[in-house]
Amino acid sequence: MRYDPLFVAPMREELVRLGFEELHTPDEVDRALQRQGTTLLVINSVCGCAAGSARPAVALSLRHTNKPDHLVTVFAGMDVEATQHVRERYLVGQPPSSPSMALLADGKLVAMIHRYQIEGQYPETIAQLLTDIYDRYCQKSAAPIEA
């Protein structure tokens, strides 16, 4: 069962405002995740740790000098087929986790932050995990995004 779209609209908007592209179908997932370069994928969620930790952490992390080339998101409980496709094709071997964040390089998973690493953590702590990943896999950008 999917959530009421009006209920999740503000939760979606948080990431869209930061420049994230929403992926609603398996075809959109494939087009987005097979691009060259680095892609941050956020599996968004309605839970409290998504609102209090995950989304704020993503916003903080995008102020960093190094950041992914592409930003995309699927919403667990809304974009059901897209989320399932992401998990089955691009996050092979990873347990289902929402919220979560994955970094892909040229379509291949290189790093993942699971829900268990988000729950009970401050956004700053999660943002540091993300920026450490960016420093390892992403090229330097011209200017940070102001969140």
Describe the protein in words.
The chain is α/β, with parallel strands linked by helices and 147 residues long. It has one domain: Glutaredoxin (3-Layer(aba) Sandwich), CATH 3.40.30.10. Helix content is 44%, strand content 18%. It has 6 helices and 5 strands, in the order H-E-H-E-H-E-H-E-E-H-H. It has helices at 5-17, 26-33, 48-61, 80-90, 115-118, 123-137; strands spanning 21-22, 38-44, 70-75, 100-105, 108-113. Strands 1-3-2-4-5 form a 5-stranded mixed β-sheet, with helices on both faces. Strand 2, helix 3 (48-61) and strand 3 (70-75) form a beta-alpha-beta unit. The radius of gyration is 14 Å and the shape is globular. It starts with a helix and ends in a 10-residue tail after the last helix. The mean pLDDT is 93.
Q: Summed up, what is this model?
A:
This protein is of the alpha/beta class and 147 residues long.
Order of helices and strands: HEHEHEHEEHH
CATH class: Alpha Beta
Number of domains: 1
Describe the sheet with the most strands. Answer: 5 strands, mixed
User: Could you tell me the number of beta strands?
Assistant: 5
List keywords for this structure.
147 residues; alpha/beta; five-stranded mixed β-sheet; Glutaredoxin
